[in-house]
Structure formats: C-alpha cells, structure tokens
Amino acid sequence: MFCMFNTNRLIQIFLFITQLPLAGDKVAPVQLSSIQELSEQKDCHLSLGISDWMPYQGLTKNGQPTGKQVELIQQIVKEVGCSLSYKSMSFPQGLIELQNGTVDFQMNASVSEERKSYSYFSIPYRKEFLLLYSTSKYLDKCQTMNLEALIKDGFKLGLQKGLVYGPELTRIQKNRELNSKIYYVDTNIQHVQLVQQKNLDGVVDDPIVVSYRSTKNVTGDTLSACSIVVSESPISLIFSKKTVSRELVDKFNRAIRKIQNTRAYQKEWVW
Length: 271
Fold this sequence. Notes:
By secondary structure, this protein is an alpha/beta fold. The protein folds into 2 domains: 26-126 and 235-269, D-Maltodextrin-Binding Protein, domain 2, CATH 3.40.190.10; 128-232, 3-Layer(aba) Sandwich (D-Maltodextrin-Binding Protein, domain 2). It has helices spanning 7-17, 33-36, 68-80, 91-100, 113-116, 147-152, 167-174, 176-179, 188-196, 207-215, 246-260, 263-269; strands at 3-4, 45-50, 58-59, 65-66, 83-88, 105-109, 119-121, 126-134, 157-160, 183-185, 202-205, 224-240. The strands form 2 sheets. Strands 1, 2, 5, 6, 7, 8, 9, 10, 11 and 12 form a 10-stranded mixed beta sheet that branches.
C-alpha cells in the first residue's frame, strides 16, 4: 500500500534542496582529477551509462560528468581502483546495452528477476524516494485517494519505459486494464513536455529532481506533490554479466560499505 508523505522527510528534502543551484546558476562539472590519475590502469576500465537526471547526474555540453550522484560513484570507483568513461543514454537504452555488453554498468537500478538474467547487482548504495506529482486537476483528489483509485477515476499517469517504480505500482502495471491507462515514454524529459502540453495529469519522480527542475523553469508551477509515496526503497548499481566479473562486483560492494561509513556520506545521503 502506498505510504502517506512523512513530514520529517519533507524537512530533510528541503534541507537538501537548499544546497542546490538556483535558476541561472551554472552547475560545475565534477572534478575528474582523481579518476584521471587512474587512467594508466589498463586492467580495470569501466564504461558508465548516464542519463540526464539533474541534480543527481548528467553531462555538460562538453561531455563532462556532473551531479551529486556522479561524485558518489566516482568515489566508489576510485576506491575500487578502476578508471571510468561515460556514455550518454536513457536508462532503458542502458539496459539493452548491458545485455549486449556495450556498456559496463548503470546507476539507479532496482533489483528484478528479469534483470538478474543478464546482470549483477551491487549492494544498495543509496535509498530511492519517489512521490506522485499532479497537476491542479487532480491535486485535491490525490491527497485522499490511492493511486489505483486515481487511475480508475481517469488520472492520466506518465511513466518512463523500462523502470521499476516499487512493488505497489508494479502490481498495478501487471493488471492489464489498469496498465492500459498508463502513458509510457522513453525519457523522463518527455514527462515534463507532456505535462506542459496538458496531455498528462501527473508523473512519478524524485522530489529533489522535481524541485531542481522547478528552479530551472522546466516544470514551473505545473506540478505539486500528492500525499502518496510511490517508492521508498534501496537502489543498486547494475553490471553487465558479459563484461564485469562477480569478483569485481564484490570489490564494489566493499567500496560501497566503506564509503557509507564516512561522515560525508552520512551527511549527504542518509535522510
């Protein structure tokens, strides 16, 4: 069952958001010196599929990685002792490339049996927190109704193809009738475009991402949070079985545990 929004979590997210750049500010690319120092290590070079999901991750116009989550992954990769390159792609496209062995790993992965057939998962490196967002049309109803009832009532929900949104929404998607009422798009940027064109009533996303986009005038005031927590679950790194060994994933797990015990991680990622 979907959870109601927690007031303490709202305060924690607000504190996180206050550290984000405002509209008009330039987001500095992540410093690559620590990764570049490892570039001579020929035995361990990994390619990372990365999509535009600021302020967590993205690539600048010059192709440089940027974002808070990128910084975290670079710390983990440095601890493992590998060098790193980046390939711009949507998450669903990245899953295809993992199966083909043309990219080594991706971030933001929820574990599923289907994905296990072609990939390894690290231990969780952070928690995911997703809310339902609505336009003004359903804003009152979404404070009291659950998501299944909203969809039955005509709520046009937009989701990105290939993503796992938690157990309850997965259950809804397995219902053929309910799933036929959901609108699927290739990237989460299209969600924003569709909402602006008033073809959608709402989307599911991370509140930090939605707030960041609002400061950049991407969503403006078109979306407001409902009292429905769609997912609050751990997420992992996902590795291609074709290019990455189980032993290397074990090294990543040890690096993740070490970094999670640092004060910097606790301050940045433990809410």
